[in-house]
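User: Last request for today: this protein with heme C, please.
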Amino acid sequence: MMLRPMLAAILATAVILPSIALAGPIEDRQAIMKGNGRDTKMGGDMLKGAVPFDAATANKILANYAAAAKAFPTHFPASSKTGGETEASPAIWTMAADWKIATDKFQKDTAAAAAMTVTDAASFGKAFGMVTANCKSCHEGFRIKKS
Ligand code: HEC
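Assistant: Here's the final one, the structure of the complex with heme C:
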């Protein structure tokens, strides 16, 4: 199947770029969240009027959120509870049912927001607010901020 060539490619990359050798679920999920951070900054700037509203960018941000919400929960194997610079709370594993509720809600809200196809700042603000309520509530329960 595809596994062997993929593994070979990963190993080759690790040899060529030793700094990438540490890449794993922690770095992957942090990269997804960094994307959320960038999108939220951009969305917030548009809503504040710091940058002009642009419908294409707004809808792209909402689509990014939906993709992020879908991918994010797949990067929490038991082997990634600690290590690297993770800020993941042990509650993700000890309160797995609550974690599932939080990640399911994030997926549901981001999918609904992406389906809204916003046309102006008012409609974007509504979709954006629906998504970003998840950031704070999930971080409170499941992220231990280090700095
Ligand atoms: C379902 C839970 C959940 C939701 C929803 C969520 N986050 Fe996170 N976020 C986390 C967890 C857990 C971490 C820590 C990941 C790690 O370090 O392993 C994190 C980390 C981050 C980080 C730090 C990334 C880094 O390592 O540099 C940023 C920035 C961030 N989130 C932004 C957001 C924004 C913006 C939203 C909303 C659009 C959001 N998050 C929604 C759980 C969530």
